[in-house]
Specification:
Distance between the termini: 31 Å
CATH topology of one domain: Serine Threonine Protein Phosphatase 5, Tetratricopeptide repeat
Helix content: 55-70%
Radius of gyration: 18 Å
Number of helices: 13
Structural class: mainly alpha
Largest sheet: none
Length: 253
């Protein structure tokens, strides 16, 4: 998503940037172990901060993000919910909670969170894609397409095309070909390719096409641009990594 407050995983980014992206798998076992160590450290530190100051919203935010990246989805939801109890005016902007609800299997709550964010920012089609994913898991793809959020303002590339992908009016090949032919510099192309591979893969996962999903998510997780590109991109890099791991656990081949 476009907007947020930086959180715990920013401490992990320098380590991620040292990791080669050339392995057969997106992350080696050593890299996964190092990431787990960093997340465990963040959870321990944040828990100590919360013990000292139970009203510290930022500590809950840091721990919630770390729980989410760790795959402890219900714990992440609980911490995001505590943030809302402590500061109700965060309700519209806390898109991270929507992602945690989605991966905790709370699809209606996830859709409601993304709908609330849409009232705050009606340009951000990335949020609309997650609203669609949540509704697709809760009610099926036809109904989710009927209830797509409406946009009439320009959004950053490649999200206009990715929104047409979930609408069913563009194919993955169309999206990637558009990026390939765009007259942009190498950094901008890396950015667009990361988001395209990520959301093509996530969309395949929602459509129950695990082999295609893993193919694109593997490419997204290998991105050398996303981990160091700022809060939103690095956050979504973790989401791609998590989704890839979940698919591999379900079907290792």
């Amino acid at each position: 998503m476009a907007l947020s407050t930086p959180s715990a995983f920013l401490r992990i980014v320098p380590i991620l940037l040292l990791w080669s992206a050339l392995d057969d798998n997106p992350l080696s076992e050593n890299r996964k172990a190092e990431l787990k160590r960093q997340l465990d450290k963040t959870i321990t530190e944040s828990t100590a901060e919360i013990s000292r100051d139970p009203a510290n919203v930022q500590s809950y935010s840091r721990r919630a993000d770390a729980y989410l990246f760790h795959g402890d989805f219900s714990k992440a939801v609980a911490d995001y919910d505590t943030m809302l109890e402590l500061k109700p005016d965060l309700r519209a902007t806390l898109w991270q909670r929507g992602l945690a609800c989605f991966y905790a299997g709370q699809f209606k709550q996830a859709a409601d969170q993304f709908a609330a964010y849409h009232a705050y920012d009606n340009r951000d089609r990335e949020n609309g894609i997650w609203h669609y994913f949540s509704n697709a898991k809760a009610h099926g793809i036809p109904k989710a397409r009927q209830e797509l959020l409406k946009y009439d303002r320009f959004d950053r590339e490649p999200f206009p095309s990715l929104y047409r992908l979930v609408e069913g009016t563009m194919t993955p090949t169309d999206v990637l070909s558009e990026i390939d032919s765009a007259k942009v510099d190498s950094t901008e192309r890396q950015k667009r390719l990361f988001y395209a591979e990520l959301y093509i893969g996530l969309n395949h996962a929602v459509e129950d096409k695990p082999d295609l999903a893993k193919k694109h998510l593997r490419k997204a997780t290998r991105s050398t641009w996303a981990p160091g590109a700022g809060y939103g991109a690095a956050f979504m890099w973790h989401i791609g990594r998590l989704q890839y791991d979940l698919l591999m656990q379900a079907s290792p081949n």
